[in-house]
Amino acid sequence: MSNAPIIFYDIPSKAPGCAWSPNTWKTRYALNYKGLAYKTEWIEYPDIADLCKKIGAEPTMIRKDGRPYYSLPVIQDPKTGAVISDSARIAEYLDETYPDTPKVFPAETHVLQRAFMAAYDGATEPLVSYIIPAVARILRQGSIEYYVRTREESFGKKLVEVWPTGEAHEVKWKDVEAGFGKVDRWLNEPLNKGKPFVMGNVVSFADFMIAGEMHWCRQAFGEESDLWKDMMTWHGGRWARLVADLKKYEGAREEDMTD
């Protein structure tokens, strides 16, 4: 059995610390929380599908037209030979394969956590109009054209037209805050009130999902931006505290990637 570290495939950026993707952050948190040795391989957007096919990673989903869609994160575990895609499946694999490490999905919470993730995505959907255009400014040259082209095809308009401006911004940004406010109310139910995590005092995958999105916003908007500073004040500073509480699981700062 190989003693080589797990290979973790992530998408690079020009932002400080390099890591930015909310989906790959879930896996980065999981690996660090479990204390598993790994090394990051940085893959630009246009190269993701070819990499996945080469190493045998399953597509994340099948499009309506039948074409497979490949995305990161993906891990390759030399100890078992396994290649796993999708952050939730990766977490489940790590829990099963390394049972003596802390559980990312505590016992019998898989279904409830997946339900929470779906509800969270629905509540925070208004963020999309801001975050997707913002990401384009931090990607490296190898990913920008692919990212912008595919996102503009999805929106049916230029990315600069997706970003709300003027009065539309005033309304939309309040919608973003209200969406996170809905999540805050869930977490402030009487039995969980005052506790730091989705499961009270227990860290789980759901926390990594939320904190991963916080990193996404910080990197894409910029730490000195008005949007990021505003988010960190929302709901009594809940989201700022969550990132701070999980900081010990962020791992070593990756070397900045610049063109």
From TrEMBL:
Q: Which InterPro entries match?
A: Glutathione-S-Trfase_C_sf (IPR036282), Glutathione_S-Trfase_N (IPR004045), GST_UstS-like_C (IPR054416), Thioredoxin-like_sf (IPR036249)
Q: What protein name is recorded for this chain? A: GST N-terminal domain-containing protein
Q: Which residues form the GST N-terminal domain?
A: 11-102
Listed Pfam families: GST_C_7 (PF22041), GST_N_2 (PF13409)
**SUPFAM superfamilies per record:** GST C-terminal domain-like, Thioredoxin-like
User: The organism sits in which domain of life?
Assistant: Eukaryota
